[in-house]
Amino acid sequence: MHLCVVGAGVVGLTTGLELQRQFRNASVTILADRFEQDTCSDVAAGLFRPGTSFAGPTEEITRKWISDAYRYWDEIRKTADAAEAGVAQLSGYIFSSIDPGIVRNHYIEQIVPVYRAATEQELTLCPGEWKYGSFFTTVLAECRLFQPWATKRFLANGGRILTQKVESFQDLASSTKYDVVVNCTGMGAKKLCSDYKLVPIRGQVIKVKAPWVKTAFYADYDTYIIPGFQGVTLGGCRNFDSFNTLPCKYDSGAIRERCEKLLPSLKGAPVIREAVGLRPHRDPVRVEVELMGSESGGRNLKVVHNYGHGGYGVTTAPGTAIYAAQLVGDVLKSNSKL
């Protein structure tokens, strides 16, 4: 049995590993033209905190994706591989002066070990007139470490990784070697699938050297400070339908100003790098089966799509990977046309 994953970001890598786990006798290949530091996943801070607007096809499936993903990350955290994989436990605060709903999260309040209202004293930890707040403990997965670790593990399991830009699924349909293809191309799916529901939400971050920061902070206006293994991530912005992949000096200035106002000790923290990523946003996230006919009249190509995670790809990738692999199993078992 030959299975193929297109895309090598965090969604593609976790899907490749999950296919190896569920189909131990299968040959699994990952095809991609961008890897590790060239992927959108590399820009992410990687804190497990899905947005409350994140949505799969149903509420039940969405919650399962999120709980499965948290379990996946937390299990790595408990192993000897945690440091190499870039996975750790992290606690943080979210503050707002606008609305109490902003500091709540119905998806993770019952999943993470701690999610509670901030005390009156905690609301004074950062400068500002904060009216509402929550404290939570979750996990962090830093993709600059996780992706190389996952790649090494995938290859050690017998997987193959080929550098190839897939311009059309018809190109793969003409090959008889793949029984099922899993599409994990993120923003690439906009062109590959002619999917107009897929929209880039541009994000820009600044990675700074600030080893004294041990706690994450979120605040109004998309402000966040997230410590990681290789620096502290300062953010952010959400530019809807923007394809600009270059850092913007105006965004940089606004991010520094907001973050330094929230945590004044960051003033003067040296910049490690600035990074931009185009989050592949789709409502709902697309994890489903599609049977594609061959233009040449050859065999049909069975495709399982797994893309459109927006800014929550790192958070939810392991959950959608499990679901996508189960769909692959359904396809393999089915003798009828889909």
Automatic annotation (TrEMBL):
Cofactor entry: FAD
Which InterPro entries does the record match to this protein?
D-amino_acid_oxidase_CS, DAO, FAD-dep_OxRdtase
Signal peptide annotation: none
Q: Which domain of life is it from?
A: Eukaryota
Q: FAD dependent oxidoreductase domain: from which residue to which, for each copy?
A: 3-327
Q: Name one GO biological process term.
A: D-amino acid catabolic process
Alphabetical GO CC annotations of the entry are: cytoplasm
Give the UniProt family note: Belongs to the DAMOX/DASOX family.
Which keywords fit this entry according to its UniProt record? FAD, Flavoprotein, Oxidoreductase
Q: Quick check: keyword Ribosomal protein in the entry?
A: no
Q: What organism does the record attribute this protein to? A: Culex quinquefasciatus (Southern house mosquito)
Residue positions annotated to bind FAD are: 33-34, 45-47, 166, 185, 310-315
Name of this chain's protein: D-amino acid oxidase
The UniProt record gives the binding positions of D-dopa as: 224, 279, 311
A GO molecular function term, named singly, is:
D-amino-acid oxidase activity
